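A quick aside before the break. I want you to see a complete sequence-to-structure record at least once, exactly as it would be stored in a machine-readable document. Don't worry about memorizing anything.
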Amino acid sequence: MATTFNYKRVYVWELPVRFFHWVTAFSTTILIITGFIIADPPAINANVEATNSFWFGYIRAIHFITAYILIANLIFRVYWAFTGNQFANWRNFIPYTKKGIHNIIHVLKVDIFLMKDTEHKLYNISIGHNYLAAFSYFIMALFFLLQVMTGLSLIADTSSWWFPSMFKWVSTMFGGDIVTRYIHHILTWLFMAFVVIHVYLVLFHDYVEARGEASSMISGFKFVRAERLKESESEIIDKAEKITWKKKNKKTQKEK
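That is the input. The structure line, written in tokens, reads:
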């Protein structure tokens, strides 16, 4: 007989988080396509005089505008990491606890190396992002910053806007435009590999855990085992009590 559990529908991903996710997804796709066209422009045979054609200029404009949208999107997400709910909080993206490190090891063993899950413990099933996914997003955000810096430095000399000009030093640091362009190009392949792995793991979790992993980024809701939800609630209460106790303790010490 199949083992059944008591699941509850939980609102995990707030609208701003879902908005950030889909803006990132569409922007990344556009940037990759236009980026490869810019890197190796195709020869287009047409009966129109070349001086009257501006298709490559439009490609570059789309690439730059999309990049600025993605930069603004990331800034917004950093803001929301401090104002959003517990699942959007910045603390979830840095595994600074033993539980977080243990969760990363567990996900690597089960999801990546497909080893048998012999533990079946509740703390290995995250309500929001598991720690490996969250930490990988943090690392990719750092790579994105490098991608932005190299991209802006490459257009700094031909741009009349002050913002790209702030990053001229990046190209100088890497020894010129050629190396900077290589770094920008290699990072594009890294993002493409990340997208493939990300989609695979989302579908893997959706199939194995059946918690609405894929649809949650549309609806915001996941299905969570009731006992895991109780454990999470008790953790939140404990943290709140500790914070309250620290505040009271500081207040008492000041009064003394």
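Two observations worth writing down. Residues 7-225 form a domain with the Fumarate Reductase Cytochrome B subunit fold (CATH 1.20.950.20). Confidence is low (pLDDT under 50) at residues 236-244. We'll return to this after the break.
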